[in-house]
Design brief:
Layout lengths: L1 E3 H7 L1 E8 L11 E4 L2 E10 L2 E15 L6 E16 L18 E4 L3 E3 L1 H11 L38 H6 L4
Parallel strand pairs: 6-7
Antiparallel strand pairs: 1-8, 2-4, 3-5, 4-5, 5-6
Length: 174
């Protein structure tokens, strides 16, 4: 998905809708097990020579539960907002009173902006950091690895404060 800056400048705004395949842009390993096509609904506007892109992205993803490793299917809606400016990034003067909004501007070279890397970044940043299959997931037993959502394993899990662990040896002789 591309934005032609010259076309945007002449039209004033462009709607971008459709599906994007992010297979080459999303990681193939890690907690992201699978994903569907990305649904894109964006509008690009020419604002004083900058391309302001706003809209919404939707994607179905499958991640591993962070407690029991079961697959978790989710539908993720991602708000998208980026501002692109043609040219090179300016050197920051300590004395200049630049707004902090300039930090949110992405500088591009050429007359064409490829949106795929920015779309993939927005999707990755919006994924749950700790996905759960259910809110009360019990996870895996740290001793034997049994899924405690399916059955209790009966392993002894004695929690000892590491600061007091030395005292356990003191009382063994008595």
């Amino acid at each position: 998905m591309f934005i032609q800056l010259k076309e945007l400048a002449t039209k004033g705004s462009i709607r971008l809708e459709g599906q994007e395949d992010l297979t080459d842009n999303l990681p193939k390993t890690g907690s992201l097990l699978g994903y569907g096509p990305l649904q894109v609904r964006l509008e690009a506007r020419d604002v004083e020579g900058a391309a302001e892109v706003d809209g919404e992205l939707e994607i179905d993803v499958e991640q591993s539960c962070s407690r029991c490793l079961a697959p978790v299917a989710q539908h993720v809606t991602v708000p998208f907002h980026e501002t692109f400016v043609k040219g090179e990034e300016k050197a920051i003067d300590e004395e200049s009173d630049e707004d902090e909004e300039d930090d949110d501007v992405l500088y591009v070279t050429g007359d064409r902006i490829e949106l795929k890397p920015y779309l993939a970044e927005a999707v990755m940043l919006s994924l749950p950091f700790i996905p759960l299959c259910k809110e009360d997931c019990k996870g895996l037993c740290p001793v034997c690895g049994t899924d405690r959502n399916e059955r209790e394993c009966g392993c002894k899990q004695e929690k000892v404060d590491p600061r007091l662990a030395g005292l356990a040896d003191f009382f063994k002789n008595e």
